[in-house]
Design brief:
single chain; about 160 residues; alpha+beta; globular
């Protein structure tokens, strides 16, 4: 699947995913939220997750399916039916998004991720210090690329990696 992160004019960014079968899904992304989507790509790539956000999009779900009310979401995207990787990645992405907006590395990020995941009633995945370092390195690279990208241009990535 091709993933296009398009920097829009007037802060109307677009996430567009083109699947190998010719189908696609896209959505306008709220101002400032493209950082979250780029960090999702980074986390899922570095942890080799295939059943998190981009993996579910590759399977045919639409971006807008994630925004629906619980009653109208597809079953696999509801609470306890979500794949473990999707739950884990959301918690991990949240912590790295906080780190990005804080402007410095969070102390004990591994412990914080562990605590957040366990408090949601799920087992924690194994994440090494090397994994965390690779996430930071890739995150810094893609967010730097995004920051200098002119409006109307795109960053192209793929899934699976």
């Amino acid at each position: 699947m091709k993933i296009l992160f398009k920097k829009g004019k007037n802060k109307e960014d677009v996430l567009h995913c083109c699947r190998p079968d010719g189908t696609d899904t896209w959505a306008k992304i709220a101002d400032g939220m493209m950082v979250h989507e780029l960090i999702h790509w980074t986390v899922e790539k570095e942890l080799d997750y295939h059943n998190a956000f981009y993996g579910l999009l590759a399977k045919g779900y639409d971006i807008t399916d994630f925004e629906r009310s619980s009653a109208s979401k597809p079953l696999e995207l509801k609470g306890r039916h979500l794949p473990a990787e999707a739950i884990w990645s959301e918690h991990i992405v949240h912590m790295f998004t906080l780190e990005f907006f804080e402007g410095s590395e969070l102390e004990n990020i591994s412990t914080q991720i562990d605590s957040n995941i366990r408090s949601s009633g799920h087992d924690r995945p194994v994440i090494s210090q090397s994994d965390l370092d690779n996430i930071r390195k890739t995150m810094q690279a893609i967010l730097s690329e995004w920051n200098v990208l002119p409006a109307g241009h795109e960053i192209h990535r793929k899934f699976p990696w």
